[in-house]
Amino acid sequence: MEITNEQQDETPRLTQQDLAIAAFALAETFNSYLARYEAEQFEEMTKEQYEGSLNSLRGAFAKFDAICQAMNPPTTEEEETPTEGSSDDETQAPTEE
User: Fold this and answer.
1) How far, in Å, CA of 64 to CA of 59, rounded?
2) How far apart are CA 44 and CA 31, in angstroms?
3) Cα–Cα dist 12/1, whole Å
4) Enclosing domain of residue 31
């Protein structure tokens, strides 16, 4: 048997791009399942099992998406702090205190 990746330095690390691809794949799979669900094509599953699969896919996507967002914090000054001259009338995302 051939051993690969003997040195840890040569082992590729999990990247943000890898996580984004996984999240995209989960979203596409969810959309495919949702289309079949709406058409009531459950294949060999019951409706409840199919709904469980949809919920699992949604949850997995949310986790991957959260990891991607955590790995990519806001980098522009606009996202981190309000710009000079900004007023309270501007639309901003709500924050919890």
Assistant:
1) 9
2) 19
3) 21
4) 15-73
- Domain tally for the chain? 1
Task: Give domain status of residue 8, yes or no.
Answer: no
pTM beyond 0.85: the answer is no
How does DSSP classify residue 10? Answer: G
Express each pLDDT in 52-72 by its tens digit: 999 999 999 999 888 888 887
Question: Rounded to whole angstroms, how far apart are CA atoms 45 and 48?
Answer: 8
- Rounded Cα gap, residues 29 and 35, in angstroms: 10
Averaged pLDDT for residues 32-61: 92
Q: Is 7 within a domain?
A: no
* Residue 78 pLDDT class (50, 70, 90 cuts): very low
